[in-house]
Write a structure and sequence with these properties.
The protein is an alpha+beta fold. The protein has a single domain, classed as 2-Layer Sandwich (Mago nashi protein), CATH 3.30.1560.10. Helix content is about 30%, strand content about 30%. The chain is built from 3 helices and 8 strands, in the order αββββαβββαβ. An 8-stranded mixed β-sheet has the order 5-7-6-1-2-3-4-8, covered by helices on one side. Strand 6 and strand 7 form a beta hairpin. The termini are far apart.
């Protein structure tokens, strides 16, 4: 009898746990974004032989932004901020407007190798579609404009530094 009770109790607890994980929410977790949110756009700027800004930024589908400043930037360390739902929708629209899915995976796309220029890597995911584009130079104007647009989304935010991130 006692063993049967334990099996029923364990089954009930497991069912409750499974249901909890199946539920989705738009409420931010302690990590700064909703449980079901994913990175819609990530941009990484690499070092160069000069003083190029080196950082990574991730824009989540729920509006969370994570920024990691590494070198030659105002903010060094990990920071978080938020975008409005309208800004998230505008970002999603911008991906399509610039024709991101049509870009080559790498620029220059003629095989030229340039070692002293920084690389900007942008990864986009919308639903099941995902693409990464690496750019050193020779990218189409639309890709360069998209990079500027992503940088503009970082301006004027209320950034919160993640504890112990320096």
């Amino acid at each position: 009898m006692r063993l049967a009770f334990l099996f029923v109790l364990a089954g009930t607890l497991m069912a409750g746990t499974c249901k909890k994980h199946q539920q989705t929410t738009d409420e931010p977790t302690a990590m700064g974004h909703a449980e079901d949110a994913y990175v819609m756009v990530a941009m990484r700027r690499s070092p160069c032989y000069g003083r190029c800004p080196v950082y990574e930024v991730r824009f989540y589908t729920d509006g969370a932004i994570e920024y990691v400043g590494k070198m030659n930037v105002e903010r060094i360390g990990t920071y978080r901020a938020r975008m409005s739902k309208e800004e998230v929708d505008a970002l999603r629209q911008k991906i399509h407007e610039v024709g991101f899915w049509d870009f080559s995976p790498e620029y220059p796309d003629d095989g030229t190798i340039v070692t002293d220029l920084p690389t900007t890597t942008i990864t986009v995911r919308v639903g099941d579609m995902m693409k990464e584009v690496k750019e050193k130079h020779g990218a189409p104007r639309a890709l360069k404009d998209f990079e500027k647009y992503l940088d503009s989304l970082l301006e004027g935010r209320a950034w919160t530094q993640v504890a112990g991130s320096k």
